[in-house]
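FAQ: What does a ligand-bound record look like?

Like this one, built around flavin-adenine dinucleotide:
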Amino acid sequence: MLILTCPCCGVAADETELAPGGEAHLKRFGPGSSEDAFEGYLFLRQNPRGVHFERWRHAYGCGKWFHAARSTTTMEVFGTYSAQVTEPPPEITAKIAAAGKPTA
Amino acid sequence: MKRYSAFAIAREALRNHTGWDRAWASPEPKKRYDVIIVGAGGHGLATAYYLGKNFGITNVAVLEKGWLGGGNTGRNTTIIRSNYLQDPSAAIYEKSRSLYETLSQDLNYNIMFSPRGVIMLAQTEHEVRGYKRTAHANALQGVKTEYITPKRVKELVPIIALDGPRYPVLGGLWQARGGTARHDAVAWGYARACSAMGMDIIQRCEVTGVTRDGGKVTGVTTTRGDIGCDKLGIVVAGHSGHLADMAGFRLPIESVALQALVSEPIKPCMDVVVMANTVHGYMSQSDKGEMVIGGGADGYNNYTQRGSFHHIEETVRALIETFPMISRLKMLRQWGGIVDMTGDRSPILSKTPVDGVFINCGWGTGGFKAIPGSGWAMAELMAKGTSPLADAFSLGRFREGRFIDESVAAGVAH
Ligand SMILES: Cc1cc2nc3c(=O)[nH]c(=O)nc-3n(C[C@H](O)[C@H](O)[C@H](O)COP(=O)(O)OP(=O)(O)OC[C@H]3O[C@@H](n4cnc5c(N)ncnc54)[C@H](O)[C@@H]3O)c2cc1C
Ligand SMILES: [Zn+2]
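The answer part, i.e. the structure of the complex:
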């Protein structure tokens, strides 16, 4: 079972406590933006074979959103971090780099 | 290729089965082909087959990184139906279902199509309304389906408990001409027919890059060398995003795990396919007697071909309420596949931003039923640049807001 530590309340939560929320750090585009940008934001996804930055909600715990960095090929978790950021923090990217994984 | 027939079986029985050919050849890759198809799953092989059969294009290679049919084609629960809601879906799925009816004869390979009938249970008022709507839509589309009462459900499925404590059976959408087929045989039958037309099916050949010249495809790099082509068809289901990345574009697709399981074999007890979409569970009985069970997809991106066990628990917990007799069954095997999900739960058959590259993907949890129709449409698209069955499923529909929304019709689609 996938276990992620919720950075909001500190609980090591089983997957059954969590709700997945899809790709993280999407840049939002609204009315007035180009069709390319709007399509990219709404539909196109990285869907990487490797490290995926993603959103989760501690649905059956504190209820808060957070971010996680997880490999989609090994299920290795490189850490969880606040939902209030627009890119992964340096300690997470350092951990991923140390594991020899590309982050793109 | 020697034809399979009752006579051939008798002949071989008399000479210790020494006269059977290999079903398909395993040649070395050539330097160049008119068309390369990436992915020897059902959809890739069917695309190659109809390129040859319908358009006479036979200088074709199908490249497969693993073994033929080892992806989702060999991992699915083989439900075949065409009772979708939207017109473009009905057209391609019904074309596919009708091709399945004569596919064994067409391929000279027994794919064991069994039109035993499929019921989708209505277990909430919402589903009752939804399936009545689908039955009306199907009537207009010329797809034969029927909304049936709980009494009729019970006649068709004696082992069902109609008044399950959580979700009583309120009715059902019945497609008498739906059913199942043998998944491996579909891949093998198409492969044999492609090989007989002179096409090269190359296993253990992973595509690692797409070479381009000024926005046009020129070939692929593979683990068995570089191979040139005029046209490239990407038909790799869960790995579509990865291949698109090689060709330099992105897709509205996310890859997630979908699991299934089978029980120990028991005596015949259910001769139709039953789907319960509210509780995310469905079941049929294989010819060997195993109960074949599937459920909903996992919720997060995953390429491991392993799913989360709690999904299996949820599926089985729900099905036991509807089929109390299965509670004592031992489960024999469980497995997962990587399915390619689009936002509107409809597939993509399309040209791409790269000239000469075509993509067929997004069949998600429900593309086994679509193999013949999808191959038919994809071949036409690749040969002529347009296809009445495929055109509505182009990549452009996301940008243009022309969704073919099947997620409203059923959360799970198998
Ligand atoms: C558990 C489960 C149950 C299902 N149940 C049903 C059902 O009841 N009814 C139904 O209609 N559908 C069902 N489906 C969906 C169905 O299995 C798929 O939609 C369908 O099989 C997809 O076929 P395909 O040919 O597109 O993909 P696949 O069969 O996955 O073939 C793609 C091939 O591409 C190859 N490939 C990938 N990358 C590369 C590369 N770089 N180079 C070369 N080759 C590559 C893979 O190895 C693979 O063999 C189910 C799926 C699963 C997982
Ligand atoms: Zn929490």
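Follow-up question: can I read anything off the structure? Yes, for example: Chain A has one domain: 3-25+37-98.
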